[in-house]
Amino acid sequence: MSFTLEAYQEALDWLYVQMPNYQIDGQKAYKPGLENITKLCNFFGNPQEKLKMIHIGGTNGKGSTSNMLASVLQEQGYKVGLYNSPHLIDFTERIKINGVNCEKEFVFDFIQKLRNIPEEILPSFFEFTTIMSFEYFYQKKVDFAIIEVGLGGRLDSTNIIKPLVSAITNVDLDHQNILGETLEEIATEKAGIVKPNIPIISGDERDLVKNIIQQKAIENKSKFIDATEISTDLETDLKGNYQKKNIRVVLALVDELRKQNIKISEKSVENGLMKVHQNTKFIGRWFQFSENPLIICDTAHNQAGLEMVFAQLNAIEKYKHIVLGFVNDKKIDEVLKILPKNAQYYFVKPSISRGRSPKEYENLLISAKIDFQIFETVDAGFQAAKIKCKPQEMIFVGGSNFVVGEFLEKNL
Predict the structure, then answer these.
(1) Distances (CA, A) of 34 to 6, 43, 127, 163
(2) Where does the pLDDT of residue 32 fall: very low under 50, low under 70, confident under 90, or very high at 90 and above?
(3) Are 324 and 348 in contact (CB under 8 A)?
(4) pTM, 2 dp
């Protein structure tokens, strides 16, 4: 079969059906452990062993941190591969080099190779996209590949790599049905990316989390670097107050890479931090979609992320029209406790199968005594907000990656 855009879309649709996909199917698609990815990498000749990699995990901030670091390295003149997930609009966003998505033709050809994979491997969607990124970066001969952990760390398929340095941005409650109910359990899973003799950077401010990561570093005879001890006034073009914490992790990563004789100038750091959008085409984190009216979207979807985003929203002195949607495992009652005041709400259903209809939690909305309407699609909610929003007011879109993805796909 030869490549056409139609054939590419058909191949992707087939991939989503064939491979259990956590983004769409939830927990039943999650395949913990490195057995599958090990077999897959062997099948493709272990491209990950021929690459210089940087591994970035954490609950929140790993996407921003990996894109900031990519931008810094690009400013220095390096060819930088970046593997992030999930995508917001097109699958190819997951695999980029210097801000350019991988070619649809490469994705199409790689999916064809699936047909030759031994039956006993049966990879998940994420395992398959992980080996796809390794192979792409190897073929394109990148100087560095920055690999973002998918879910957790210890059993995540990206954990097959042996990076130059690893980082854990922070640890918070998320995916408890898979990673554990407590902060300690989740931190232990995240700390599973610590490897023998490979430096690990921690960006979490709490001693509980710090100690778990540090203990893992001691067990592995790995250098432990506490990024929270760094003080800096450097800024980034990525908006969101939470980016200050991510900048410290980036600076710690840069420092470690320099110690491995990798040239990165101060100018590259400054310029890289200020040109993330331009260099990596990263969107979705406190992304200002328009100025008049002010429209902002953010993919924060767990409690800790939403708390930071809502706190920043509360600091904007405008009446707000807030479009929110969630997936099935979201604890809505906890979200309702932290909603910004002085706002009209538009609750929507993301179109994926895990998308939760607001009708299911309407009684909670009523008891929260907020001003709300319910819509069965993201676009219907956004259009209603747009009609109601006066010039001096603002719109916020969020609650889930899928809500932001649908909004951008329809309106960008």
Answers:
(1) 34, 14, 9, 16
(2) low
(3) yes
(4) 0.91
